[in-house]
């Protein structure tokens, strides 16, 4: 990766405090970052670099919604895992974000399927010396997952916990009485001796961000070359829709972006999504009830109102091959295209 440009280095008066917010798919990273942005010091400018698995970006627009202009800057790295994009794509996105925002703090959200050690190693390298001050890495975890071998034995799930300076057990309101004890036993087996905090709905304390990173790159082996297709971000079409499939690290994805003029029947859309059983589903859709956010985690689908969005988009992620063409046809049948 090339060195930071002289122009950017001169703009950085002091190294920018930087935090990695990581965790597996559906654990609530974006919710936690949104909470932090709402509770940051009002006189500070914060920047967020977001990377999502799959073909389209949804979290970036959600995080940007309702933020005070000039106080929060969001930049997305096109799909795939950020660790694989830690070369030129990540460097370009990060340099652009730093130059544009000149932030007081930088938050980085890798995809839930990325190796965070690779990201930390890149950010801790000489290229960002004097530019970034790497502080605490926060790893969000759902304690209920440690009894599920699909998570407990997953290399990325384990590494996310191993790189943490603070482990945050999120969604504690949904736990069984022994969930925390099982999480603690799992952490001892890694082994991980890291402070454990507990919260609900991603309510992260600003104090948890403070402190020097304890990351040591020498403790982590480079991840194997990813079995991945090239990811390129889908742009909203002037009319109609576009879709694209992807595959990386054993996970399949498909994303759709519909022109703003498309309007979907809310009840039929809810019925369709309720019948889907993907590992992850997130969507922003223009419906006959207005703009809606749909979120499916662990088979539970929720919807909430949004003020506005530039277009309709949906991202599905599955550990199994799926008949994306069939879903494509069903989605089209629910959308009524208005005048462009």
TrEMBL record:
CDD domains recorded: CobW-like
Entry GO CC: cytoplasm
Residue span(s) of domain CobW/HypB/UreG nucleotide-binding: 17-187
Any Pfam family: cobW
Coiled-coil regions listed in the entry: none
Matches recorded under InterPro entries: CobW/HypB/UreG_nucleotide-bd, P-loop_NTPase, Zinc-reg_GTPase_activator
Top-level lineage group: Bacteria
Protein name per the record: CobW/HypB/UreG nucleotide-binding domain-containing protein
Gene name for this UniProt entry: yeiR
